[in-house]
Amino acid sequence: MQWTEQQLAIVGRAAKGDDVKVLAYAGTGKTTTLVGVAEALPRRRVLYLAFNRAIAEEAARRFPDHVDCRTAHSLAFREVGRLYADRLANSLWAVRRELSDPAPPEIKRLDGYRTPPEPGQDVRAWERRVRRANASAVLHVVEAFLRSADPEPRYVPRDVVDLAADPRMAEEWKRDLLRAATWVWDRLSNPGAQWPVTHDVYLKLWQLSNPELPYNTLLFDEAQDADPVISAVVAAQEGTQRVYVGDQHQQIYAWRGAVDALRRFQAVSLPLSQSWRFGPNIAEMANRVLVAKGEAVPLEGLAQFPGLVTDLADPDPIGLTELHRTNAGLVASALKHLDEGRRPAVVGGTASLAKLLEAAHELWSTGYTSHPELSVFGSWDELLLAVQEGQQEYAPLTRLVEQYGSAVPSVADRLRREVVGEEQADVILSTAHKAKGRQWARIVLRGFASPVQVARDEQGNRVVVGLREGEANLLYVSMTRAQRELHLAGLQSTLIADLEELAGTGKIPAGV
After folding, report:
1. Closest alpha carbon to 485 in 314, 330, 306
2. What average pLDDT does this structure show over 185-192?
3. SS3 of 217-281
4. 87 and 194 in contact (C-beta within 8 Å)?
5. Average pLDDT for residues 399-410, to the nearest whole number?
6. Cβ–Cβ contacts within 10 Å for residue 209, how many?
7. Within a 10 A sphere around the Cβ of 189, how many other Cβ atoms?
């Protein structure tokens, strides 16, 4: 390929041994650029730190042999995780029964912060419900700790603070929650204990061990969505050359604790703004979002491939990729395509989704399931309570079950049997989050709304409040997956009008 001046500048600066911060827009060849950096450092031990295993495996096929392509979890497992291999579970919530049936003193202490039972109410039933809810609150605090760089539990999420019946007792409630979370962490981190642990537990233990990575140069990819734990490890590597790479506008995991390490890293900033993925028409739509976020550097499309942007809701489905805002929308679309005789594929597969749907239906219909992730919930109401208390990963699941009801088993069976692989598909379906890092020729967006937040004043007039940054990032990521065609399904005119109105109000961030 012919290198751009921007790419040459990055490779040249890194070849001198300098720390570099690469601000890489969508499709601008960041991996190719990093391969160039690695090739310019043939005598150094280089670590490419990947966002997930699939990216690490793909990178291993592209980088030269002196580059180690790994995920942080794989590094942590080698040093710490192997000690916990026989205790690994998919969810920390597998320990909730240990905390509520019967409840240890650390959990019982929390009963006094809850609304007391009503006169005539079954006290035993109240105790079971409250202690399970308290166990959930404690685990929520533990999970926040696992996603932080803190040396011990110090933070109680806002939605957990609000669970105290009396706001005047909020500080005491937080104190006892942190005490209980510390007690839980001591048992989770004990190699001789029997409680199940997650991959994030040994990752946190690895970070707390202050590891010194045996590399001269560290290439930190997707730094805009970095786990605080991983960011802390990278930041602590004194004497190691670091190249941070990412796009602030593609930060879409802040809801689960991710931080933008790019903003915090102090180094020379060099841009990658020439996209090799799409042409100027798609770039223009993406730039509307970037301008609304206060970005001054435009994304450039390839002039020889203009690209097509439409407001079509139903383009020809054959060879199309649908990007959905929610899992529920994806499942409904998959069933629609099956009913109409097409062969849909789902990015990431449907096996785990189908199994979890069946387990949730079992819990909904019988009050019990043996599924390892859902067996901790003693009833459907308990699962709904967990969602209300902040376990939002279960929210799409509960919506699907309530939507399809008794038809869930047949829905799960169809997903498992009839959805095909991407190579055999007429149409590909993905959520926006699963689409990150991918690209397709033709894309239509489903279930998205304008990221501009509006309200009504006292006279009922429409007022622009500002930009919902998370939604703007997700929309930008989704639009920039398209290579040749982008169909906005009725969103285009509303989006353009809202963004222009936002610009007129001046309520745009100061820039990045």
Report:
1. 306
2. 92
3. EEEECCHHHECHHHHHHHHCCCCCEEEEEECHHHCCCHHHCCECHHHHCCCEEEEECECCCCCHH
4. yes
5. 91
6. 12
7. 17
pLDDT tens digits, 443-477:
999 999 999 998 888 888 888 889 999 999 999 99
Evaluate if residue 163 carries a pLDDT over 80.
Answer: no
- Length of the chain in terms of residues written: 512
Residue closest to 66 by CA, chosen among 98, 95, 102, 35: 35
Contact 404, 360 (CB under 8 A): no
pTM listed for this prediction: 0.84
200 neighbors 79 (Cβ within 8 angstroms): no
Q: Would you place residue 511 in the very low, low, confident or very high pLDDT band (cuts 50, 70, 90)?
A: low
φ, ψ of residue 367 in degrees (nearest 5):
85, 5
Using CA atoms, how far apart are residues 483 and 440, in angstroms rounded to an integer? 6
Q: Residues 188, 84: contact at Cβ < 8 Å? A: no
Instruction: Classify residue 304 as exposed, middle or buried by CB count within 10 Å of its CB (0-12, 13-18, 19+).
Output: exposed
Distance, in Å, from the CA atom of 180 to the CA atom of 368, rounded to the nearest integer, reads 28
Give the domain ranges of the chain. Answer: 5-79+209-274, 85-199, 282-505
At 352 the pLDDT is 79
Nearest CA among 276, 274, 270, 272 for reference residue 300: 274
Alpha carbon distance 226, 203 (integer Å): 14
Report whether 161 contacts 138 (CB < 8 A).
no
Please, what sign has the CA dihedral across residues 296, 50, 87, 149? negative
d(CA 284, CA 308): 11
Nearest Cα to 109, choosing from 142, 141, 131, 137? 131
As a CATH number, domain 5-79+209-274 is 3.40.50.300
Encoded tokens for 124: 């035993």
Both structure tokens of 222: 């997707």
Residue whose entry in the numeric block shows the structure tokens 């939605």? 159
* Average pLDDT over the chain, rounded to an integer: 89
For residues 356-382, average pLDDT:
80
The per-residue pLDDT for 356 is 84
Q: Which amino acid is at 336?
A: K
Over the stretch 101-138, which tens digit does the pLDDT of each residue have? Answer: 777 888 888 888 888 888 888 888 888 778 877 888 89
The upper half-sphere exposure of residue 501, i.e. CA atoms within 13 Å in the direction of its Cβ, equals: 17
